[in-house]
C-alpha cells in the first residue's frame, strides 16, 4: 500500500493507493508477469530487439539470455503457492549486467 499526498486548494490530505498486492489479497501470477515485463523493459531488451529487426545486427547474446532467465523466474514464482509477498525483491530475479 502506497501513500500519496493529494493537494487540493492548498490543503493536503493523505490518500492510499492500492496496487492490489497485500491489503486484500496476496500477489498473483499477473503481478509477477508485470514485474517480469518491467525488468525486461528496464534491461533495454525491447530497444535492442527493435534495433536487430531494423538493422539486421544481432542483439547481444547476454540480453537474449537475460530474457530467458527472467521468463524462467516469472514462471517459477507464478507456480508458488502462495507467491511470496516480496516477489519484487532482487533476490528472486536474475541480475542484469
Q: What can you tell me about this protein's structure?
A:
This protein is an alpha+beta fold. 45% of the residues lie in helices and 14% in strands. It has three helices and two strands, in the order E-E-H-H-H. It has helices at residues 29-42, 45-55, 61-79; strands at 2-8, 11-17. It has a two-stranded antiparallel ribbon with strand order 1-2. Strand 1 and strand 2 form a beta hairpin. Helix 1 packs antiparallel against helix 3 (61-79). The two termini are 30 Å apart.
The amount of helix comes to 40-55%
Order of helix and strand elements from N to C terminus = EEHHH
Shape: globular
H/I helix tally: 3
- How many β-strands, per DSSP? 2
Give me the secondary-structure category: alpha+beta
Low-confidence region ranges: none
Taking all residues together, what is the mean pLDDT?
A: 84
The biggest sheet amounts to: 2 strands, antiparallel
What is the strand content? 5-15%
Radius of gyration: 18 Å
| Terminal Cα span | 30 Å
Strand arrangement across the biggest beta sheet: 1-2
Characteristics:
14% strand, single chain, 97 residues, two-stranded antiparallel sheet
Structure, briefly:
The chain has 97 residues and is an alpha+beta fold. The protein is built from three helices and two strands. It has helices at residues 29-42, 45-55, 61-79, and strands at residues 2-8, 11-17.
SSE blueprint:
Blueprint: E1 2-8, E2 11-17, H1 29-42, H2 45-55, H3 61-79
Antiparallel strand pairs: 1-2
Helix pairs in contact: 1-3
Amino acid at each position: 500500500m502506497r501513500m500519496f499526498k493529494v493537494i487540493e486548494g492548498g490543503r493536503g490530505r493523505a490518500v492510499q493507493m492500492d496496487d492490489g498486492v497485500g491489503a486484500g489479497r496476496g500477489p498473483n501470477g499477473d503481478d509477477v508477469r508485470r514485474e517480469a515485463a518491467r525488468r525486461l523493459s528496464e534491461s533495454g531488451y525491447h530497444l535492442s530487439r527493435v534495433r536487430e529487426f531494423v538493422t539486421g545486427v544481432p542483439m547481444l547474446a547476454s540480453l537474449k539470455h537475460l530474457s530467458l532467465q527472467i521468463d524462467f523466474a516469472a514462471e517459477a514464482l507464478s507456480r508458488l503457492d502462495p507467491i511470496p509477498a516480496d516477489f519484487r525483491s532482487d533476490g528472486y530475479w536474475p541480475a542484469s549486467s
